[in-house]
User: Fold Aldo/keto reductase from Salegentibacter mishustinae.
Amino acid sequence: MENRDSNSFQNGKSFSRRKFLSSSTIAGVGLSLNPFSMWANTKGNDTSQGKINKSQQQNINPDKRRLGNLEVSPLGLGALSVVGFYTGRVRDQYKVNKLYREAYDNGVTFFDTAEVYGPLISERQIGEAVEPFRKDVKIATKFGFDINPETGERGGLDSNPKTIRRAVEGMLKRLRTDYIDLLYQHRVDPNVPIEDVAGTVQDLMKEGKVLHWGLSEPGLNTIRRAHAVEPLTAIQNEYSPWTRNPESDVLPLCEELGIGFVPWCPLGYGFFADAINENTRFSEGDFRTILPRTTPENIPQNLQILYYIEEWGLRKNATPAQITLAWLLAQKPWIVPIPGTSNSVHLRENLRANEISFSKEELKEFDLGLSKIEIVGAQNAEPVMAAMGVEAPIKK
Ligand SMILES: NC(=O)c1ccc[n+]([C@@H]2O[C@H](COP(=O)([O-])OP(=O)(O)OC[C@H]3O[C@@H](n4cnc5c(N)ncnc54)[C@H](OP(=O)(O)O)[C@@H]3O)[C@@H](O)[C@H]2O)c1
Assistant:
């Protein structure tokens, strides 16, 4: 990211990033750091399964949360930052190992990645990083694209049973494990009935390769159909102070069915961590260049949300990132945000969000203030939005 009000070091970083993005090496290994490319072709051993009841959804231990029957830390760690999704710089393995060790030592037991992050690179990074404490943590990863397991070259959406199986075999190797704690379908494949996807995952569960499963950004009816075949553990959708649509549809459904919820981009791509301001200009290839809410025209108005969160930070002696994460945690005891960071200081800051509470009255007051602020720009870029909320075709 190029921040025009920041120092030359920042600009130096973005220069090397551009070089990185344009290098032929990237094409050679099929890195998917181009923000459009991920969406463009949209064509410990907690083995218990089964539905859970409402009381199981309660948060019994403040240091643990439950997604369905899967127990995890209240905050997870997202992998996009270390794989260079925003900066274009894949973190060196030494630093990744250090960051994940630090996360683990500070209580994080839930690590989120995906086959398409890199592609293939992020799972390798995390496989090595968590190997020393693998049995004590939960790894979540995602399939859903046609990715060449050798080259990382990526095609479009593909949740055909054969492709899922191929993906899982590769994941197990890259993650240096013989089981995946939580396997998500990254996006609904409009050509494959969800019953076929669920059936394939069910077979993988019988083989002990997958322990729990979930969906990311599915249509509501697809959730019901998937859950009827094999109970879902978590839905992973975008949710943060400027993307609150889960509150009216997906969250009530998760509550009804006993499914956990994992907000992605809980910090609004860094926006609610005070990492973006009106002088910020993103470098070419940074995902945020295509986000309608972070265009130079829209940032100033949207900063009103950050300023509002900062006011709450003064009341609660917390940073805006901490307030944002604490606000998400306060929504439901079965919500587990997965902020992404490549930075130890940010990691430690974010984890302290679990120490901040919101009373019911404070939540109401917070929401009232938030609802008065106009948010400008669509939730996400068009190709990303097109793949959200899709209903899988009916099985014939
Ligand atoms: N299912 C899906 O379709 C989907 C889509 C997107 C993401 N995800 C998952 O969700 C995770 C979270 O989303 P995300 O990482 O894209 O976005 P995010 O968590 O909203 O924000 C990450 C950005 O915020 C910065 N940041 C984090 N903590 C900070 C702090 N305390 N102070 C200043 N800056 C801070 C990070 O930079 P630094 O590295 O400098 O800290 C990074 O640029 C991902 O990592 C990924 O695992 C899933």
User: Anything to note?
Assistant: The CA atoms of residues 25 and 31 lie 9 Å apart. Residues 78-81, 86, 112, 216, 236, 264-270, 273, 275, 321, 338-343, 346, 349-350 surround NAP (CB under 6 Å). The two ends are 48 Å apart (CA to CA).
